[in-house]
Predict the structure.
Amino acid sequence: MEISGVQIVLIFIVACIAGMGSVLDEFQTHRPLVACTAIGAILGDMTTGIIIGGTLEMIALGWMNIGAAMAPDAALASVISTILVIAGHQSIGAGIAVAMPLAAAGQVLTIFARTITVFFQHQADKYAEQGNFTGIDMCHLVALFIQGLRISIPAVLVAMFIGTSAVQALLSSIPPVITGGLQVAGGFIVVVGYAMVINMMEAKYLMPFFFLGFVLAAFTSFNLVAFGVIGAVCAILYIQLNPKYATVSSANIALGQAAGTIDNSLSDDLDD
Amino acid sequence: MNVPDKKVQLTKGDLFNMFIRSNLHQGSWNFERMQALGYCFSMVPIIKRLYKGEDRVVALKRHLEFYNTQPFVTAPILGITAAMEEQKANGAAIDGGAINGIKVGLMGPLAGVGDPIFWGTLRPLLAALGASIALTGSILGPLLFFISFNIVRLGVRWYGIDYGYRTGTDIIKDIAGNKLQKLTEGASILGLFVMGALVSKWTSVNIPLVVSTITMQDGKIVTTTVQDIFNQLMPGLVPLIMTFACMSLLSKKVNALWIIFGLFGIGIFGYAFGLLK
């Protein structure tokens, strides 16, 4: 597929927004559901983009930055694998397979960018000494833009060369055993994401609720919204019934004190 | 908390400006001081309003100190520091170190609440919901995720700043009390419950190895595969075992990407030898 100049500019912009979204973690423009859909729309096949986005999103459910620990990068994986599938005429399974090393590459690039940003941190110190607000603002915004370039430059490079016959020949030489196997793996690759989320909770004592959800899903045809509601109800009930949250009312304290007084007088009688 | 007559006062516009800027909180995240510059970026309208000259320099440097927490829960902390700076600018005896002390003291506990709630429950839930709709090719999936997550996020950011600004340091009482613990525990219960459902419903494993082929009396041939036996026992059993295997590997600090490649390998191997379909 030939990618027009306008499309390349749009890819640059969307990829930049995805890259910035990846470091900000606010608007979620780096998540597959958003980034793949947008790239798909630019390349004229939004439906495929949406489907890739949905598939990748399930895999990336557990990809979260906690503290200083960096997760695999959803932005680079989403943007480039969508370009490869739509413009490079690959199957969705192949796109998912390529997304994994791309996520690893994106992770390395973000660590690199976050190290370069130390320079801007020091620059901001200098501007603070001068009371220069605009300088500080600029340091923050330029650092953010660099994170955007981290995704948009590779994306544009891929978009420019994807149409070439050499790359096409490379992509069509992948044996069907691989693509079939990847398709099959796609059905259960998500368990890694689930495992990451469950481990992050660090609440082994709450695992009974996990099994409850599992069993209910196995034997009923409830949809996800139903599970959300039932789960919320379980949570509320658990908190309401949990003795660790019980408050001792002052009435109980008063009762206890009164009982103590009665006991004392009884023992006085016996002592006599 | 009441200062008799205020020489300088923050306007609603200043707080709104801070709210807008706080959406770019992690933009300059770096390994030396993490979210420090982003915090200062959000405090710029506050410092501009409250201080002049050398006081500005001191205030700016105060807010360039190391800072890191879950980005959305920064909102109440921003509100509190805005309130404290306002009091300080009006002559209250608040030490600059005390303001930073509040930031450092709150960022840990609030991250302990924010990470499981937003990254562990809210985002996976909305993303799984959106993805299941997206897999049918409908744009409603991505839209549902994007719109609902951002409504919650913007709400937390705006009301968080408002709450922090009005409550000030009294917020410590809420932290020490049970409210936050209940919220975290409740969110974890919801998250785990839905994860359990996802493991069963949103995975597919098919082991087509034939165990028996029986010809019924009416001539129909009934084949039973390994998968059929598993399904009669407990649908979703194989993905469940896989999930526990992954959890165990992850807790042994095996890199998630290796596990993913391993699963791809299993898929290709199984497909090649007819063990999986």
Q: What stands out?
A: Chain B touches chain A through 110 residues (CB under 8 Å). The first helix of chain B runs from residue 12 to 22. Chain B has a mean pLDDT of 86.
